[in-house]
Design brief:
Helices cover 67% and strands 0% of the residues. The protein has 54 residues and is mainly alpha-helical. It is elongated.
């Protein structure tokens, strides 16, 4: 295995790995079934005093 081949392999496989990882994360984040969990996480650090005044 030459240095050029190893460099080519790292660049191409790394590119596809990162693209695939990004696509999986985006799909996981924006699934409709994750909305309830995302809303709970967004409001988890808020207390009653942190809400806007009426």
């Amino acid at each position: 295995m030459t240095h050029d081949f190893a460099l080519f392999l790292a660049k191409t496989v790394g590119l596809f790995y990162l693209m695939g990882f990004f696509i999986i994360i985006v799909i996981h984040t924006y699934r409709p079934s994750r909305k309830a969990a995302a809303d709970r996480a967004a409001n988890a650090i808020l207390t009653a005093e942190d809400k806007p005044c009426p």
